[in-house]
Amino acid sequence: xxxxxGGEASVEQLAVALSDAGATAGDRRRRRxxxxxxxxxxxxxxxxxxVAELFDRHWEAAHRxxxxxxxxxxxxxxxxxxxxxxxxxxxxxxxxxxxxRPWLHRIVANRAIDWARARQLRREVGAEAAPELAGSxxxxxxxxxxVAAALAQLPPEQRAVIVLRHLLELTPREIADVLELPQGTVxxxxxxxxxxxxxxxxxSEGER
Amino acid sequence: xTERELRETLRHAxxxxxxxxxxxxxxxxxxxxxxxxxxGRRRVRSTSLVLVACLAATLAVTGxxxxxxxxxxxxxxxxVGVTATAPAPTLSKLPAGTRLLVRxxxxxxxxxxxxxxxxxxxxxxxxxxxHGLFVVGWHGSELTALxxxxxxRWSLTARARVRTARWAPGDGYRIAYVSGSELRMVNGxxxxxxRLAVARAGIVPAWRPAGAGHVLAWVDAHGxxxxxxxxxxxxxxxxxxxxxxxELAWSPDASSLLVVTARAAMLLRxxxxxxxxxxxxxxxxxxxxxxxxxxxxxxxxxxxxxxxSELVLLSPAGLRHRVLFTAPGRLGAPAWSSDGRVLLAPxxxxxxxxxxTPQRRHRPVQTVxxxxxxxxxxxxxxxxxxxxxxxxxxRP
Lengths: 208, 396
Prior knowledge:
The complex is a heterodimer of chains A (208) and B (396). Chain A is mainly alpha-helical and 208 residues long.
């Protein structure tokens, strides 16, 4: 098992840390309010206030998840925003018995993985004169901790399962549904991803 | 790093409030655009039926013969869920002070500077003559020269479908057009229609805007860019095969040719040598090759994964590029007015034209909304215009 800082924090502890990070105090407070089904119903009936509350509940997690998978602020914003727009488009026919959160996260995770994969595959041509991609931005120094940087070193598939499991708190079964993978594959990616993350963090600790 | 520090780091990762606010504005606007909810409408209708019945009874009892006032009528319409027909949108004054040639829904239109539209007829596409005196339009296998008021000057029937045509600059003595896979040329008066070469279908040939003679850049069947003096029948140069060439555009001074391909936007010098290349990353594509009045190459970079488009300027000097502006969804080909004062950027996903000026490049000075409906005569199905072209400067 990988360890950090003299073996004090295991990858499981890291997972706990990630999990806690996904739920802010505000999130927990709001969860005691109206049920999600009630909010979806109100939104279907035309309540902008309900839409605002749903947005408020899910934006941070969606945006953060997208960022941790893509490691690109602009892409994260676009992906999270597009997930909410997709949810709005589906709102009139949305089955209120189904939870909104996993459905929203499915969109975020899959789009973020697609984006990250595409970025890996992108090729510059005419390298003698090819500047950077127009519009791309380096990650902000304000949001950037070495944990996000360590995550960025993992393949998108491993990043995604770690984020889904430990930031968005989905179960391996739910992750399997979201990513349309066998549960065994999810578990193995999670294992390998956490090991690699622990290693990357230990390495970055050594450099600091 | 301890576990506690790690947890704190993650917990206190600062939220991006600006991103959140931007996203909320977009989401809220999208929600307001949704059709009214069915349940709510049913409720209103059931209630309103009672109200209408009450009002009718009241009118009958009092023997009122006076027509309800407009306010009551409006209240009734609102109560029963009947909305008045939205007023037909109108184009306001165009800031460039010149005409626009617009193709929308299978028709071609000329829009005057005061916003008045004239439908020229059913054409698959059209382009201005060099001084805006005529328009060349095409539909099926017909190529037609007409005046901006719609009067046809001449017409010819090609052997295959006409895909595009461009009038030569300057004297306007030549028109190049692509029919099937043939690059052809006809004189501006409709005479001497002839075949020039086999060309890559669908790529608009580009006349060199300056210099002597009639020089045309076009793409052959092998994907080579060729530059030909059509009067002398002489090839000036040709490139190596370039995969996926889509568009060509000469700089205003004819010193550079912008070539947009599936994988790159490249600048070639007037002798065909390569000046600069901007590689496109996978998932992105470029369209709308054009030049700014200041001599920068321009094109729309579409990022399909992020679902956004950017208007990118590529400067030959220093081989630098920059983003003029970004929009969610798609952007159409940009069009600069002939005097360089106004840039029109079609934004189909917003059903808007965004009009910029050099002084305020990053924010539109004017938006034209509900564009599609403005080119839907008689309530026909509205389609956002597929192309716009400002009229060239009139002959001095």
